[in-house]
Inverse folding.
């Protein structure tokens, strides 16, 4: 049973436009959410995070929005650039056994066309 | 980039043979993790370690064992490899188990079991 769902396997966007990647979760104990970016033949790298006490976190071109009542978060990339083409993983964590170990979604492959 | 080295980077082995993957870190981080990435499944946690000789199971631990005899090394062993264990394996580290400590990943080991 997937606790973190990324229902869009892929997304195609034109350079300069906004990219919106979506993520849903089912476990109400999750209180910290992260996005990772992965290029081919490399490991995932941390991009941005948000705590459940906030509804928005911004870092340059990247903004993450959290809607706790809907158990939904989204990553906005504005403006999108060809170098943003990668697989994006949503992850969620909650305190379990004294640790925050993230559960990952299946990923969304973003292609930004020049 | 966090100092994480995975070895080997690629391996082909036959069904039924034992395989050991190595993760080495130079960051002196306490927490280390093994994930596998498969198409349609995203990243799934196999095992993790919260200190020397302290390990615990993740969601897909069957068929895998781990050992951590030194802070810097975390070994993943497939006692008798099966074709279902063909995957890309990622090691990750984190400084502490808190919310503000994202995982840093290695570049992965691609394992093929024939």
């Amino acid at each position: 049973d997937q606790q973190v769902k990324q229902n869009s396997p892929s997304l195609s966007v034109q350079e300069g436009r906004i990219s919106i990647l979506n993520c849903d979760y089912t476990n109400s104990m999750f209180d910290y959410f992260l996005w990772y970016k992965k290029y081919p033949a490399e490991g995932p790298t941390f991009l941005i995070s948000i705590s459940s006490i906030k509804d928005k976190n911004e870092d340059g071109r990247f903004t993450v929005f959290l809607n706790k009542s809907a158990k939904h978060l989204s990553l906005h990339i504005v403006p999108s650039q060809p170098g943003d083409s990668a697989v994006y993983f949503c992850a969620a964590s909650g305190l379990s056994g004294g640790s925050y170990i993230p559960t990952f979604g299946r990923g969304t492959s973003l292609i930004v066309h020049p | 980039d966090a100092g994480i080295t995975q070895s080997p980077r690629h391996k082909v082995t036959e069904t039924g043979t034992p395989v050991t993957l190595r993760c080495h870190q130079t960051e002196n981080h306490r927490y280390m993790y093994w994930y596998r990435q498969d198409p349609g499944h995203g990243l799934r946690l196999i095992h993790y370690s919260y200190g020397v000789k302290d390990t615990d199971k993740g969601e897909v631990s069957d068929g895998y064992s781990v050992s951590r005899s030194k802070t810097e090394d975390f070994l993943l062993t497939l006692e008798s490899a099966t074709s279902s264990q063909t995957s890309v394996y990622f090691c990750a580290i984190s400084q502490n188990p808190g919310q503000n400590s994202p995982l840093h990943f290695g570049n992965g080991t691609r394992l093929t079991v024939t």
